[in-house]
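This part of the workshop introduces the protein records we will be handling. A learned vocabulary of local backbone shapes supplies the integers on the structure line. Getting from the letters to the tokens is the skill we practise here. As an example, a complete record with its sequence and its structure tokens follows.
=====
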Amino acid sequence: GRPYEGFLRVRAAGPAVIIASLRAADGAVLAEQALQVAGGPEFQRLEFTLVPRSNAWNGRFAITLRAPASVTLGYAFLQPGEWNRYKGLPIRRDLAQALLDQGIQLLRLNGGMIEVPGYRWKTLHGPRDRRPPYNGFYDRYCSSGFGPVEHLAFCRAAGLVGVVGLNKDESPEDVADFVAYCNAAAGTPAGDRRATDGHPEPLGLRYYQVGNESGVNAAYVEHFKRVAEAVWAVDPEVTLLPCGLTYGAKADDDPKAMRKKYAAHLDLTRFVQ
């Protein structure tokens, strides 16, 4: 009895009708809507709303044909209506509330998933159905539907401190562009780009982490310095976080060897001072 909504991106050589439906675990149809596909080479966006007539656990979302046709399905998206979305964002309210009920005050988006060539912020914003999937660190095909922009929008709405890290191979200029996109005032070029994506107010990025478990060595420190200079030229209030690891250092190392391994940390500390 509550609405679910979504949209598809489809194309077909000729006119066709596809059916979007919600089903029980045994396949019984609980709600369905017929969608007309116009023939042509371009992907067409088709929106739908489905209201199931009964509850179902382990339910299904199906896209089917009832007559012979050839349709290419490029993208499919389904979400609860406003009744189970957190403050209108594309985030399930029950999951968000379970997270907030833990009493957390800070939420970080970083980890192994950023360490692939396809994880670049410029393909992680804008209309989600136009973002390319990428070959992930853990999975072969990864969706770009939830990225750093969605993360910061949720943190802003929930009153959390948001921390974001991007791939270490992002250029300093692109990192600075990301910071400007997040924090620029409305009416500026970067602020207008953000508003076009549905976020008219600044996202309030205050903490940016340079890489993830990248290892602190001389090359990392030089990259950190270049990122810092580019970012602070755009927003000097952003705090940069290093990845903080020196691989291979042990407590019982020879002091001379320890000093050599931690020389990069000392260089980084002097720079930020």
In short: The longest strand covers residues 40-50. The chain is about 25% helix and 25% strand. The mean pLDDT is 93.
